[in-house]
Amino acid sequence: MDIGIIGAGSLGLLYSYYLCKNHTITLYTNRKAQADQINTNGLLMIKDGIHTRVMINADSTRNYKEELLIVTVKQYDIASVIAEINNLSPRTILFLQNGMGHLPYLSALLKHHIILGIVEHGALRLDDHTVQHTGVGTTKIAYYNRDNSQNTLIEQLETNRQSLFSIEMKDDWREMLAEKLVVNATINPLTSILRVRNGELIENDHFIKLLKALFIEVIQVLGLSNKELLWEHVQNICKTTAQNQSSMYKDIQNGHQTEIDSILGYLIQQATNTQKPIPHITFLYHAIKGIEVGND
Ligand SMILES: NC(=O)C1=CN([C@@H]2O[C@H](COP(=O)(O)OP(=O)(O)OC[C@H]3O[C@@H](n4cnc5c(N)ncnc54)[C@H](OP(=O)(O)O)[C@@H]3O)[C@@H](O)[C@H]2O)C=CC1
Ligand SMILES: CC(C)(CO)C(=O)C(=O)O
């Protein structure tokens, strides 16, 4: 099948590499220089010290022709991509963003088959044509438009669960995204302002109290009831990614914009309806926004 991947950053390069084994990929870059580089040098994947090069087609024209598009831009670039997608003839579009900032835009895209996904891999773009697969996980996907539950294109993506690049279908997109948001809304901002790796949040007796207090606010805003299981889940992610710096912490260290608006910013918007106090969420949101201003 022909697949277009929009955004040639860490995830765009990772997905291009794995999907090009069975599909014809066009990777839509933001810059012509990057497309030229990929078309000339190929895409280089590094995993466990092994380097593998594949040739794929990269394109900076934004002339999306494929029946299946996978959007791998950051949340803060989603609005411009959605404006372009809106004008296309109907097709299947898979969004892989962290956070929930893209949700308000989706009601305008219902002529398309919208699929939402969360990514549990770690990927790092080392340069414009090189990506490192830093952690093997899975991709979970769920239908956003309920009436499109039979989507033969998406079914073609499904792969062996034992493989390095499995794709798992979930029933409920809201539950799937909420579970990931709980992780990103707790671990990411706290590690960023405390300047610690993920594991320290549960190893330090004081930090774990902050993590728990923030967690309680987050699940209340999202109206989630399975508190014990989710708390176990957050602590487990801290354990399994103990040596990692969260993506937000890395963004701050590198002077990049973060996805805080679509993570804690989204929760602050949701909380206006619940009347629940959210002091930790509010504090962390403004702390990260303030650091971003400083980085500017
Ligand atoms: N990396 C990871 O391990 C994981 C990432 N995610 C999520 O996936 C999403 C993408 O993250 P990631 O890949 O790390 O981000 P990156 O910043 O590495 O990549 C985003 C890419 O999108 C490009 N881009 C921006 N606007 C456009 C546009 N209009 N058209 C085409 N390309 C565009 C950027 O171009 P330019 O290079 O010019 O800036 C950049 O190459 C985020 O929501 C993130 O939270 C989720 C789980 C894991
Ligand atoms: C799971 C976690 C917290 C791993 O670092 C992550 O998704 C991120 O850093 O954005």
TrEMBL record:
Catalyzes the NADPH-dependent reduction of ketopantoate into pantoic acid. The lineage of its organism: Bacteria, Bacillati, Bacillota, Bacilli, Bacillales. Keywords: NADP, Oxidoreductase, Pantothenate biosynthesis. Pathway: Cofactor biosynthesis; (R)-pantothenate biosynthesis; (R)-pantoate from 3-methyl-2-oxobutanoate: step 2/2. Its EC number is 1.1.1.169. Belongs to the ketopantoate reductase family. Residues 3-145 form the Ketopantoate reductase N-terminal domain. Residues 172-292 form the Ketopantoate reductase C-terminal domain. It catalyses: (R)-pantoate + NADP(+) = 2-dehydropantoate + NADPH + H(+). Pfam families: ApbA (PF02558), ApbA_C (PF08546). It comes from the Bacteria. One of its GO terms (molecular function) is 2-dehydropantoate 2-reductase activity. This is 2-dehydropantoate 2-reductase.
